[in-house]
Structure to design on (369 residues):
Protein backbone atom coordinates (compact mmCIF):
# COMPACT_ATOMS: atom_id res chain seq x y z
CA UNK A 1 0.00 0.00 0.00
CA UNK A 2 1.62 3.25 -1.11
CA UNK A 3 1.52 6.35 1.06
CA UNK A 4 -1.28 8.84 0.73
CA UNK A 5 -0.23 11.47 -1.78
CA UNK A 6 -0.10 15.12 -0.76
CA UNK A 7 -2.86 16.94 -2.59
CA UNK A 8 -3.34 20.68 -2.48
CA UNK A 9 -6.77 21.89 -3.58
CA UNK A 10 -7.05 25.57 -4.45
CA UNK A 11 -10.79 26.13 -3.98
CA UNK A 12 -12.93 29.11 -4.83
CA UNK A 13 -14.75 30.53 -1.80
CA UNK A 14 -18.01 30.83 -3.76
CA UNK A 15 -18.26 27.29 -5.09
CA UNK A 16 -15.78 24.46 -4.47
CA UNK A 17 -14.94 25.57 -0.94
CA UNK A 18 -18.64 25.72 -0.08
CA UNK A 19 -19.08 22.34 -1.77
CA UNK A 20 -16.30 20.93 0.42
CA UNK A 21 -18.09 22.34 3.45
CA UNK A 22 -21.34 20.81 2.25
CA UNK A 23 -19.61 17.47 1.70
CA UNK A 24 -18.70 17.50 5.38
CA UNK A 25 -22.22 18.51 6.43
CA UNK A 26 -23.58 15.67 4.32
CA UNK A 27 -21.18 13.24 6.01
CA UNK A 28 -19.54 12.50 2.67
CA UNK A 29 -16.15 10.82 3.00
CA UNK A 30 -13.19 12.13 1.10
CA UNK A 31 -9.45 11.57 1.58
CA UNK A 32 -7.89 13.46 4.48
CA UNK A 33 -4.74 14.11 2.47
CA UNK A 34 -6.55 16.72 0.37
CA UNK A 35 -5.52 20.05 1.88
CA UNK A 36 -7.77 22.91 0.90
CA UNK A 37 -6.50 26.43 0.29
CA UNK A 38 -9.42 28.83 0.09
CA UNK A 39 -9.18 31.51 -2.56
CA UNK A 40 -11.59 34.39 -3.23
CA UNK A 41 -11.80 33.06 -6.81
CA UNK A 42 -9.75 30.59 -8.85
CA UNK A 43 -8.74 33.65 -10.89
CA UNK A 44 -6.47 34.34 -7.91
CA UNK A 45 -4.55 31.11 -8.56
CA UNK A 46 -1.27 32.29 -10.02
CA UNK A 47 0.82 29.84 -12.01
CA UNK A 48 3.63 30.07 -9.50
CA UNK A 49 1.28 29.25 -6.61
CA UNK A 50 0.71 25.89 -8.25
CA UNK A 51 4.39 25.36 -9.09
CA UNK A 52 5.39 26.38 -5.58
CA UNK A 53 3.02 23.78 -4.16
CA UNK A 54 4.94 21.12 -6.11
CA UNK A 55 8.28 22.57 -5.01
CA UNK A 56 7.07 22.35 -1.40
CA UNK A 57 6.19 18.68 -1.75
CA UNK A 58 2.71 18.39 -3.23
CA UNK A 59 2.16 15.31 -5.40
CA UNK A 60 -0.90 16.79 -7.07
CA UNK A 61 -2.69 20.11 -7.27
CA UNK A 62 -6.40 20.48 -7.84
CA UNK A 63 -7.80 23.86 -8.87
CA UNK A 64 -11.54 23.83 -8.25
CA UNK A 65 -13.69 26.71 -9.41
CA UNK A 66 -17.17 27.64 -10.49
CA UNK A 67 -18.87 26.24 -13.55
CA UNK A 68 -18.36 28.30 -16.74
CA UNK A 69 -20.79 31.21 -16.69
CA UNK A 70 -21.28 31.29 -12.93
CA UNK A 71 -18.09 32.95 -11.69
CA UNK A 72 -18.77 35.57 -9.00
CA UNK A 73 -16.11 37.69 -10.71
CA UNK A 74 -17.44 37.03 -14.23
CA UNK A 75 -14.52 35.10 -15.70
CA UNK A 76 -11.97 34.31 -12.99
CA UNK A 77 -12.66 30.59 -13.44
CA UNK A 78 -12.03 30.83 -17.19
CA UNK A 79 -8.72 32.56 -16.51
CA UNK A 80 -7.88 29.74 -14.14
CA UNK A 81 -8.53 27.21 -16.92
CA UNK A 82 -5.99 29.00 -19.12
CA UNK A 83 -3.45 29.23 -16.33
CA UNK A 84 -3.78 25.57 -15.45
CA UNK A 85 -3.21 24.79 -19.14
CA UNK A 86 -0.05 26.90 -19.11
CA UNK A 87 1.06 25.31 -15.83
CA UNK A 88 0.82 21.87 -17.43
CA UNK A 89 3.22 23.03 -20.19
CA UNK A 90 5.67 24.37 -17.60
CA UNK A 91 5.49 21.11 -15.64
CA UNK A 92 6.27 19.12 -18.78
CA UNK A 93 9.37 21.28 -19.32
CA UNK A 94 10.45 20.54 -15.76
CA UNK A 95 9.95 16.80 -16.26
CA UNK A 96 6.77 16.51 -14.15
CA UNK A 97 3.69 14.65 -15.37
CA UNK A 98 1.11 17.33 -16.34
CA UNK A 99 -1.68 15.06 -15.10
CA UNK A 100 -0.62 16.05 -11.61
CA UNK A 101 -2.46 19.34 -11.96
CA UNK A 102 -6.14 19.48 -12.80
CA UNK A 103 -8.87 22.10 -13.12
CA UNK A 104 -12.38 21.09 -12.09
CA UNK A 105 -15.66 22.97 -11.97
CA UNK A 106 -17.71 22.26 -8.83
CA UNK A 107 -20.78 24.30 -7.89
CA UNK A 108 -21.52 25.22 -4.28
CA UNK A 109 -24.40 22.74 -4.15
CA UNK A 110 -22.29 19.79 -5.33
CA UNK A 111 -20.89 18.48 -2.06
CA UNK A 112 -20.96 14.85 -3.23
CA UNK A 113 -19.15 15.85 -6.44
CA UNK A 114 -16.38 17.49 -4.42
CA UNK A 115 -15.95 14.30 -2.42
CA UNK A 116 -15.97 12.22 -5.60
CA UNK A 117 -13.42 14.46 -7.36
CA UNK A 118 -11.18 14.36 -4.29
CA UNK A 119 -11.31 10.57 -4.21
CA UNK A 120 -10.70 10.20 -7.96
CA UNK A 121 -7.88 12.74 -8.05
CA UNK A 122 -6.19 11.20 -5.01
CA UNK A 123 -6.40 7.78 -6.63
CA UNK A 124 -4.96 9.10 -9.90
CA UNK A 125 -2.04 10.76 -8.11
CA UNK A 126 -1.46 7.63 -6.03
CA UNK A 127 -1.24 5.68 -9.30
CA UNK A 128 1.21 8.20 -10.80
CA UNK A 129 3.35 8.02 -7.65
CA UNK A 130 3.34 4.24 -7.91
CA UNK A 131 4.36 4.33 -11.59
CA UNK A 132 7.13 6.79 -10.78
CA UNK A 133 8.37 4.63 -7.93
CA UNK A 134 8.53 1.60 -10.21
CA UNK A 135 10.23 3.48 -13.08
CA UNK A 136 14.02 3.15 -13.35
CA UNK A 137 15.83 6.17 -11.96
CA UNK A 138 17.80 8.17 -14.51
CA UNK A 139 20.71 9.98 -12.93
CA UNK A 140 21.84 13.09 -14.74
CA UNK A 141 25.45 14.12 -14.40
CA UNK A 142 26.01 17.74 -13.41
CA UNK A 143 26.51 19.83 -16.54
CA UNK A 144 24.34 17.61 -18.69
CA UNK A 145 20.63 17.64 -19.31
CA UNK A 146 18.25 15.08 -20.69
CA UNK B 1 9.67 49.42 -24.23
CA UNK B 2 11.99 46.56 -25.00
CA UNK B 3 10.03 43.39 -25.68
CA UNK B 4 11.52 39.99 -24.92
CA UNK B 5 10.48 36.36 -24.69
CA UNK B 6 11.76 33.65 -22.43
CA UNK B 7 14.23 31.21 -23.90
CA UNK B 8 13.28 27.52 -24.12
CA UNK B 9 13.53 25.93 -20.68
CA UNK B 10 16.00 23.26 -21.79
CA UNK B 11 18.49 25.92 -22.90
CA UNK B 12 18.25 27.71 -19.54
CA UNK B 13 18.45 24.48 -17.57
CA UNK B 14 21.48 23.34 -19.54
CA UNK B 15 23.32 26.50 -18.49
CA UNK B 16 22.10 26.38 -14.90
CA UNK B 17 23.11 22.72 -14.61
CA UNK B 18 26.77 23.65 -15.12
CA UNK B 19 26.74 25.17 -11.64
CA UNK B 20 25.60 24.29 -8.14
CA UNK B 21 24.24 27.63 -7.03
CA UNK B 22 22.68 30.14 -9.39
CA UNK B 23 21.06 33.51 -8.88
CA UNK B 24 18.01 34.19 -11.01
CA UNK B 25 17.96 37.96 -11.43
CA UNK B 26 14.70 39.56 -12.58
CA UNK B 27 14.28 43.06 -13.95
CA UNK B 28 11.43 45.35 -12.91
CA UNK B 29 11.18 47.53 -16.00
CA UNK B 30 10.46 46.65 -19.67
CA UNK B 31 10.52 42.87 -19.26
CA UNK B 32 8.10 43.12 -16.36
CA UNK B 33 5.62 44.96 -18.58
CA UNK B 34 5.98 42.41 -21.38
CA UNK B 35 5.66 39.62 -18.79
CA UNK B 36 8.93 37.92 -19.68
CA UNK B 37 11.40 38.64 -16.88
CA UNK B 38 9.73 40.42 -13.98
CA UNK B 39 9.30 39.21 -10.42
CA UNK B 40 6.45 36.85 -11.31
CA UNK B 41 8.26 35.29 -14.23
CA UNK B 42 11.42 34.99 -12.13
CA UNK B 43 9.39 33.07 -9.55
CA UNK B 44 7.94 30.76 -12.18
CA UNK B 45 11.34 29.98 -13.71
CA UNK B 46 12.88 29.49 -10.26
CA UNK B 47 10.16 26.96 -9.40
CA UNK B 48 10.67 25.18 -12.71
CA UNK B 49 14.43 24.97 -12.17
CA UNK B 50 13.93 23.64 -8.64
CA UNK B 51 11.45 21.02 -9.83
CA UNK B 52 13.58 19.99 -12.82
CA UNK B 53 16.77 19.69 -10.76
CA UNK B 54 14.97 17.55 -8.18
CA UNK B 55 13.35 15.43 -10.87
CA UNK B 56 16.61 14.91 -12.79
CA UNK B 57 18.87 14.52 -9.80
CA UNK B 58 20.89 17.66 -10.46
CA UNK B 59 22.42 19.42 -7.45
CA UNK B 60 21.21 22.94 -8.06
CA UNK B 61 20.31 25.66 -5.59
CA UNK B 62 18.33 28.54 -7.06
CA UNK B 63 18.06 31.97 -5.45
CA UNK B 64 15.68 34.51 -6.92
CA UNK B 65 15.91 38.26 -6.74
CA UNK B 66 14.44 41.10 -8.80
CA UNK B 67 15.78 44.63 -9.06
CA UNK B 68 14.09 47.72 -10.48
CA UNK B 69 16.36 47.93 -13.55
CA UNK B 70 19.31 45.94 -14.75
CA UNK B 71 20.56 48.69 -17.08
CA UNK B 72 21.40 51.24 -14.36
CA UNK B 73 24.25 50.86 -11.88
CA UNK B 74 22.33 52.44 -9.01
CA UNK B 75 19.90 49.53 -8.77
CA UNK B 76 22.64 46.97 -8.19
CA UNK B 77 22.59 47.54 -4.43
CA UNK B 78 24.51 45.78 -1.67
CA UNK B 79 21.91 43.02 -1.33
CA UNK B 80 22.12 42.25 -5.03
CA UNK B 81 25.92 42.26 -5.00
CA UNK B 82 25.97 39.94 -1.99
CA UNK B 83 23.57 37.52 -3.67
CA UNK B 84 25.67 37.58 -6.83
CA UNK B 85 28.87 36.94 -4.88
CA UNK B 86 27.26 34.03 -3.03
CA UNK B 87 26.25 32.40 -6.33
CA UNK B 88 28.36 30.47 -8.82
CA UNK B 89 26.62 32.12 -11.78
CA UNK B 90 23.83 34.53 -12.62
CA UNK B 91 20.90 33.90 -14.93
CA UNK B 92 19.63 37.30 -15.96
CA UNK B 93 15.98 37.74 -16.79
CA UNK B 94 16.69 41.21 -18.15
CA UNK B 95 16.89 42.12 -21.83
CA UNK B 96 20.20 41.86 -23.67
CA UNK B 97 21.22 45.21 -22.20
CA UNK B 98 20.61 43.98 -18.66
CA UNK B 99 22.57 40.78 -19.23
CA UNK B 100 25.59 42.72 -20.47
CA UNK B 101 25.36 45.37 -17.80
CA UNK B 102 25.22 42.70 -15.12
CA UNK B 103 28.15 40.90 -16.71
CA UNK B 104 30.21 44.12 -16.79
CA UNK B 105 29.37 44.82 -13.18
CA UNK B 106 30.40 41.38 -11.92
CA UNK B 107 33.37 40.41 -14.14
CA UNK B 108 34.18 37.31 -12.09
CA UNK B 109 30.73 35.78 -12.66
CA UNK B 110 29.28 34.13 -15.74
CA UNK B 111 25.96 35.75 -16.61
CA UNK B 112 23.56 33.74 -18.76
CA UNK B 113 20.59 35.23 -20.60
CA UNK B 114 17.19 33.74 -19.81
CA UNK B 115 15.40 35.81 -22.46
CA UNK B 116 15.60 36.44 -26.16
CA UNK B 117 15.31 40.19 -26.71
CA UNK B 118 13.00 40.84 -29.64
CA UNK B 119 12.26 44.51 -30.39
CA UNK B 120 11.14 47.99 -29.27
CA UNK B 121 7.41 47.62 -29.14
CA UNK B 122 4.01 48.52 -27.80
CA UNK B 123 1.26 46.58 -26.05
CA UNK B 124 -1.61 45.90 -28.46
CA UNK B 125 -3.64 44.13 -25.79
CA UNK B 126 -2.77 42.16 -22.67
CA UNK B 127 -0.42 39.43 -23.81
CA UNK B 128 0.21 40.85 -27.30
CA UNK B 129 3.14 43.10 -28.16
CA UNK B 130 4.22 44.37 -31.55
CA UNK B 131 7.23 46.12 -33.05
CA UNK B 132 6.94 49.88 -33.46
CA UNK B 133 10.48 51.29 -33.61
CA UNK B 134 13.71 50.14 -35.23
CA UNK B 135 15.94 52.58 -33.34
CA UNK B 136 17.30 53.94 -36.63
CA UNK B 137 18.62 57.10 -34.96
CA UNK B 138 16.77 59.62 -37.15
CA UNK B 139 13.02 59.67 -36.63
CA UNK B 140 10.95 60.45 -39.70
CA UNK B 141 7.47 59.31 -38.66
CA UNK B 142 6.08 62.85 -38.99
CA UNK B 143 6.22 62.47 -42.77
CA UNK B 144 4.19 59.28 -42.65
CA UNK B 145 1.21 60.09 -40.46
CA UNK B 146 2.91 58.88 -37.29
CA UNK B 147 3.50 55.40 -38.68
CA UNK B 148 7.08 54.27 -39.09
CA UNK B 149 7.80 52.67 -42.46
CA UNK B 150 11.26 51.60 -41.29
CA UNK B 151 9.95 49.45 -38.45
CA UNK B 152 6.52 48.49 -39.71
CA UNK B 153 6.98 47.97 -43.45
CA UNK B 154 8.57 44.56 -44.00
CA UNK B 155 10.84 46.11 -46.64
CA UNK B 156 11.35 49.40 -44.76
CA UNK B 157 10.23 51.25 -47.90
CA UNK B 158 10.17 55.03 -47.69
CA UNK B 159 8.28 55.29 -50.99
CA UNK B 160 5.68 52.57 -50.69
CA UNK B 161 3.65 50.55 -50.93
CA UNK B 162 5.21 47.72 -52.87
CA UNK B 163 3.27 45.38 -55.13
CA UNK B 164 2.77 42.93 -52.30
CA UNK B 165 0.18 44.99 -50.49
CA UNK B 166 -3.26 43.37 -50.77
CA UNK B 167 -6.43 44.16 -48.84
CA UNK B 168 -4.44 46.12 -46.32
CA UNK B 169 -2.17 43.18 -45.55
CA UNK B 170 1.49 42.49 -46.19
CA UNK B 171 2.59 39.78 -48.59
CA UNK B 172 4.91 38.23 -46.03
CA UNK B 173 2.03 37.20 -43.80
CA UNK B 174 -1.71 37.84 -44.04
CA UNK B 175 -1.75 38.59 -40.29
CA UNK B 176 0.61 41.53 -40.76
CA UNK B 177 -0.85 44.91 -41.61
CA UNK B 178 0.61 46.70 -44.63
CA UNK B 179 2.29 49.72 -43.02
CA UNK B 180 1.88 51.71 -46.21
CA UNK B 181 -1.86 51.06 -46.32
CA UNK B 182 -2.03 52.39 -42.77
CA UNK B 183 0.12 55.38 -43.72
CA UNK B 184 -2.18 56.25 -46.63
CA UNK B 185 -5.32 55.76 -44.55
CA UNK B 186 -4.01 57.91 -41.72
CA UNK B 187 -2.68 60.65 -44.01
CA UNK B 188 -6.11 60.73 -45.66
CA UNK B 189 -7.74 61.20 -42.26
CA UNK B 190 -5.31 64.03 -41.57
CA UNK B 191 -6.05 65.61 -44.98
CA UNK B 192 -2.39 65.34 -45.91
CA UNK B 193 -2.41 62.52 -48.45
CA UNK B 194 -1.01 64.84 -51.16
CA UNK B 195 2.26 65.02 -49.18
CA UNK B 196 2.84 61.37 -50.05
CA UNK B 197 3.42 62.37 -53.68
CA UNK B 198 6.75 63.81 -52.60
CA UNK B 199 9.53 61.33 -53.34
CA UNK B 200 11.49 60.61 -50.21
CA UNK B 201 15.25 60.78 -50.71
CA UNK B 202 17.58 58.06 -49.55
CA UNK B 203 17.58 57.89 -45.79
CA UNK B 204 20.77 58.85 -44.02
CA UNK B 205 21.65 55.55 -42.43
CA UNK B 206 24.79 56.91 -40.78
CA UNK B 207 22.71 57.43 -37.64
CA UNK B 208 21.84 53.76 -37.62
CA UNK B 209 24.28 51.03 -36.58
CA UNK B 210 26.48 51.51 -39.65
CA UNK B 211 29.03 53.31 -37.52
CA UNK B 212 29.08 50.59 -34.90
CA UNK B 213 27.58 50.75 -31.40
CA UNK B 214 26.17 54.19 -30.66
CA UNK B 215 26.54 56.39 -27.61
CA UNK B 216 24.44 59.38 -26.59
CA UNK B 217 26.10 62.09 -24.48
CA UNK B 218 24.16 64.86 -22.82
CA UNK B 219 26.90 67.08 -21.50
CA UNK B 220 24.76 69.34 -19.31
CA UNK B 221 23.73 66.50 -17.04
CA UNK B 222 27.04 64.66 -16.83
CA UNK B 223 28.72 64.61 -13.44
Amino acid sequence: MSEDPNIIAFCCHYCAFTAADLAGTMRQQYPVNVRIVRLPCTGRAEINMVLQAFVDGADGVLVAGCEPGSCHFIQGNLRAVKRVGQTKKLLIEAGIDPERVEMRHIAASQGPLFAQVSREFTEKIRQLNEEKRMAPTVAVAQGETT
Amino acid sequence: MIVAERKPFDEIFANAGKHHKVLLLGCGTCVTVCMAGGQKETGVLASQLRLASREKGVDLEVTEHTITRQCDAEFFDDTTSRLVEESDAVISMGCGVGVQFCSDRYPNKTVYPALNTEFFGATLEQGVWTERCAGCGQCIVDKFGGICPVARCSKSLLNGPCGGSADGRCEINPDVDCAWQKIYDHMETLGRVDELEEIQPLKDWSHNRDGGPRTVRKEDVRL
